[in-house]
Specification:
Elements (H helix, E strand, L loop, with lengths): L11 H21 L6 H12 L13 H4 L5 H15 L5 H8 L5 H7 L5 H14 L8 H6 L1 E3 L5 E4 L3 H19 L2 H22 L8 H8 L7 H9 L2 H11 L5 H11 L5 E5 L5 H15 L9 E7 L10 E3 L5 E3 L16 E8 L9
Parallel strand pairs: 2-5
Antiparallel strand pairs: 1-2, 3-7, 4-7, 5-6
């Protein structure tokens, strides 16, 4: 992200602490409204949100499937939490139940992971601040003050807070399209994946590539179930391992790997075009042909790609947000008579990004 928004250098550790603070505030709010929460439950919820992202590796979501096959970061988080639970003799058992949604009081899991959780409340406000994109700024205190628990033990929002919730949902939508799915951000993330994919391919063909010991371990690793050594080494990896490797691989004999690494390290990224419709094969073939001509290669197809990004701002069926009225009645957010925007953001939106070498435009001049 900091390739596009220079201020976006905040860390996941910042986010974990912020989410933990918001969890504390939310639990205090619920207690003031008469919701009984024991000290053990409070401790469990605080620990669960503190560790909810502990399984993230270098560059977050972008590389998790490349380094550990198809392991989602939440699987790794759970695995690491279980290991810590053994070390602390079961003190994290309740936190793990809440994290997994197995605890009998559902609202704890909803505070950790739902369409309106303290995780999203923190990262939206934090990312909005550090990127300077004001559309993502939300009133977290107002939203938390509207939180409540219904008789069924689920998290609900006091009906008078409906517009704060709609603002939160639309702010999240704008942040995705302006920041997280920004075409250059999507491109940089895509390049990271392609770089490691290319490196793993070259190594499988017998090439030698310089890398730190832990990164090299994953580049050579065959697909298999995660072992204790996999997990131990994964926790030792960070962004610096990948950045250092890309700096070295700029000088690789493989043109594609060298080209991509130079694009990222020298911040001379490929050209991108964004569209709401898929690009035709004709324009893609034209870009491939020009790439071959420009660089004198025959695998220009490696340098031209269509990237797809899709977003469903509000999932009306999966964990819907409920409003609690004064008479105790619950209504779904998008079905409320008072909603202004919720009914408009229940449809999925897709964008297509075509990437190709920036220099091929010189062939047209």
């Amino acid at each position: 992200m900091n390739l596009i928004f220079p201020g976006a250098t905040h860390t996941r550790f910042h986010h974990a602490l912020g989410a933990m603070h918001l969890m504390f505030t939310a639990l205090e709010t619920l207690k003031q409204k008469g919701v009984k929460i024991s000290e053990e439950e409070e401790k469990g919820a605080m620990l669960a949100i503190l560790m909810h992202d502990i399984g993230h590796g270098p560059f977050s979501h972008a590389l998790e499937s490349m380094l550990m096959d198809d392991w989602h970061h939440e699987n790794l988080s759970l695995l690491l939490m279980n290991k810590l639970n053994e070390k602390f003799q079961g003190q994290l058992s309740m936190a793990i139940e809440m994290f997994q949604g197995k605890y009998h009081r559902k609202f704890f899991n909803q505070l950790i992971s739902s369409q309106l959780d303290v995780d999203r409340l923190d990262y939206l406000k934090r990312d909005s601040f550090f990127t300077g994109v004001s559309e993502g700024n939300i009133n977290t205190q107002r939203i938390i003050s509207m939180m409540n628990v219904c008789e069924e033990g689920e998290l609900v929002i006091d009906a008078k807070g409906i517009y704060s919730i709609e603002n939160f949902l639309t702010a999240r939508m704008f942040m995705y399209w302006q920041v997280y799915y920004h075409k250059t951000s999507a491109l940089a993330e895509f390049l990271l994946v392609k770089i490691l994919e290319r490196a793993k391919y070259l190594i499988s063909q017998g090439a030698e590539l310089p890398a730190t010991d832990n990164l090299k371990y994953f580049l050579y690793r065959e697909k298999s179930a995660a072992t204790d050594e996999d997990v131990e080494r994964f926790t030792q990896l960070d962004d610096n391992d990948v950045i250092q490797a890309m700096k070295e691989w700029q000088n690789s004999e493989d043109f594609v790997l060298s080209y991509w690494c130079k694009c990222v390290i020298q911040r001379n990224l490929p050209k991108t075009i964004i569209s709401s419709h898929p690009f035709g094969q004709e324009i893609i073939e034209e870009k491939i042909k020009k790439s071959n001509e420009l660089f004198g290669i025959n695998n220009g197809n490696e340098l031209v790609h269509e990237i797809k990004r899709k977003l469903l701002p509000y999932h009306a069926e999966k964990q819907p947000i409920y409003l609690l009225h004064k008479n105790g009645r619950r209504t779904r957010l998008h079905e409320s008579e008072d909603q202004l925007l919720s009914g408009l953001i229940v449809n999925k939106t897709t964008r297509y990004i075509l990437m190709f070498p920036r220099d091929i435009s010189k062939l047209d001049s």
